[in-house]
Design a protein that fits this description.
Elements lengths: L9 E8 L3 H12 L3 E2 L15 E5 L41 H16 L3 E2 L4 E6 L8 E5 L2 E10 L21 E4 L14 E4 L3 H10 L5 E5 L5 E2 L5 H16 L7 H5 L1 E2 L2 H8 L5 E3 L3 E3 L2 E3 L5 E3 L2 E4 L24 E2 L2 E2 L2 E6 L8 H18 L15
Parallel strand pairs: 1-3, 1-7, 2-3, 3-4, 7-20, 8-17, 9-10, 9-17, 10-13, 11-12
Antiparallel strand pairs: 5-6, 6-7, 14-15, 15-16, 18-19, 19-20
Helix pairs in contact: 1-7
């Protein structure tokens, strides 16, 4: 669908951008609190208060968010723990199933069972204020026409913005360079020497996988920090709190793993025993046939795999001028501190699966406060809608 025949924008009280885990959580909590799909007639509803409407706009062709694009070898047995979506637990998990197919199916069933209002594929191009009134409406320009909303919950994640560091000589490399966002299978590298760059979970996981079929070298900017202890609830809480403090100050968020360190798993211990996790300090430059090591020696290479993370996909919010002098967006919980009409979920501390669910609920509670309404479910557990 698109804007009306007269060119006017369609209207909703809340527009959610993105239908990954954080976006679906926000949609669940909106619906639980009485919001109905945009376009639903107000007549005939038994309601003592105003009829509030929402819509979720998703750029993907189908359910699953960024999980649709994960490499097929990332199985449910090896993926980090995935939290249940609020209200409906995950179905039985086959540990040998690809996470991409399982989570697309889970998310799709969730959307259907709850009857969530989702339009796809719709690409949001920009969000701007309709006028100079700080309490006025926001205009959401999309590939399917414009929307007008009182508030926006942004849940666009990071997958569409892989981070490629700038390194001397990168353009001269005659081999193949790719980001983990483009990774398909280790088999395509058989017989080639692969340089893996990055100190996160994806880097060590792919090192383990690729090293089973060919030779590898691992480079990081900093010495990796490994955890022997299990990453329990308290450790997770402490890590999220540190990331929250950064975004509260308006600094760019760090990943949670940058705070927690890497966790030893049986597979990674086996990889270390094979010598795969021998880390080198970052190379000083890239040359046509390989990389120049920190000690001045030369390492021939056929492939450079950049496991260097992602940045938040927020370019469509640029007209709102949300970024501060620190380079980040100052946050108050999920709410942009300087713009209460905009909530960011799946950003900073809520980029983990556990944080995403909590952030969806927090964003809806903040929007109800903005609308001058009480949250009748505050403090109550989620339930099956």
């Amino acid at each position: 669908m698109s804007a009306g025949m007269d060119g006017r924008a369609r209207s909703a009280d809340v527009v959610v951008i993105g239908a990954g885990q954080a976006g679906l959580s926000a949609a669940y909590h909106l619906q639980r609190r009485g919001f109905v799909p945009a376009g639903t007639p107000a007549e005939g509803r038994n309601s003592s208060g105003p009829v509030r409407k929402y819509i979720v706009l998703d750029a993907e062709d189908g359910p699953g968010g960024a999980w649709r694009h994960r490499w097929k070898s990332l199985l449910m047995a090896t993926v980090n723990g995935i939290s249940d979506l609020p209200g409906i637990p995950q179905p039985a998990v086959d540990p040998e199933e690809a996470s991409s197919s399982f989570l697309a199916r889970y998310f799709g069933g969730y959307e259907q069972e709850l009857g969530l209002a989702i339009e796809r594929p719709v690409k949001v191009r920009c969000v701007s204020a309709e006028d100079h009134d700080a309490g006025g409406r926001l205009r959401i320009a999309t590939s399917g026409g414009d929307w007008s909303a009182r508030a926006v919950i942004n849940a666009t994640g990071t997958w569409t913005r892989p981070f490629w560091p700038i390194y001397p000589g990168r353009a001269s490399f005659r081999g193949r360079q790719l980001h983990v966002a483009d990774y398909v299978s280790a088999e395509e590298f058989r017989g080639r020497h692969v340089v893996v760059v990055g100190g996160g979970i994806s880097a060590v996981g792919l090192l383990d996988e690729i090293s089973r079929v060919t030779t590898t070298s691992w480079f990081t900017r900093r010495e990796p920090v490994w955890r022997d202890a299990a990453f329990d609830r308290q450790a997770g809480h402490d890590a999220v709190a540190l990331v929250e403090e950064r975004v509260r100050q308006g600094l760019p968020p760090q990943s949670v793993v940058a705070v927690t360190g890497l966790i030893w798993t049986p597979a990674l211990r086996a990889a270390a025993a094979r010598g795969v996790l021998e880390r080198h300090p970052m190379f000083t430059g890239i040359e046509p046939g390989g990389v120049r090591m920190a000690d001045g020696s030369f390492l021939p290479a056929d492939v450079i795999l950049w496991a260097t993370g992602f940045r938040a996909e927020l370019e469509h919010l640029a007209p709102l001028h949300l970024r501060g002098p620190g380079g980040g967006i100052a946050m108050d919980g999920t709410q942009v501190a300087a713009e209460p009409r905009v909530h960011l979920v799946g950003y900073g501390p809520s980029s983990s699966t556990i944080g995403a669910n909590r952030a969806g609920r927090a964003a809806v509670a903040g929007i109800l406060r903005l609308f001058g309404e009480q949250d009748k479910f505050a403090g109550k557990p989620n339930f099956r809608a």
